[in-house]
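Hi there, hope your week has been kind to you so far. Thanks so much in advance, here it is:
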Amino acid sequence: MPKISAERKQERRAEIIAAAMRCFGRTGYQRTSMADIIAESGLSAGAIYGYFAGKQELLEAVAGSVLGERIAEIGVGADGRPAPRSPRELALMTIRGLRQIATLPLIVQTWGEAVTDPELRAIVLRVFPEVRHVFEQSMVGWLRAQPEPAPADPEAWAQGMALLIVGLVQGAAVQTALLDDFDGEQYLRAISATLPG
């Protein structure tokens, strides 16, 4: 049997993740079965299970894909750390990026289900600290480059701002997913007028 190249393995993995994302987006995480994902992908069960042990691993991969895209938007500075960005830039960039995701309702649904589902909660508890950490590093870099005197403890300031930004992003996501009359542009303007940067 011929071996599959590393590049083809990555492509196949991405195909499976995309199929899972479509299924989760249509029927939600709880109502999607592995059989649904297998049918959506057009692959055999063996092919799917060769990459993922089950639905939870697939959801983690979906979350990792979305997270990776958001972190990639921030970029990398010359020191290899997240590029310096202001709180305003981080909030606006992240919210604009999330609003483009077709499966945004799935993300909101996952947050809700994570309150009572320990497996989903474990995924959320792995993702959010990573997001906050990237935001913190980015803002500390930005703060240190400002001509004004920095707060006495830049790291503590950035931690507080990261918590605020995550809350603003969650608020935008929930309102976008649930409210037909949500004015996303007004929300972004309010952020621009409020956050530093």
In short: The CA atoms of residues 88 and 193 lie 9 Å apart. The mean pLDDT is 88. The domain at 60-194 is CATH 1.10.357.10 (Tetracycline Repressor; domain 2). The two ends are 57 Å apart (CA to CA).
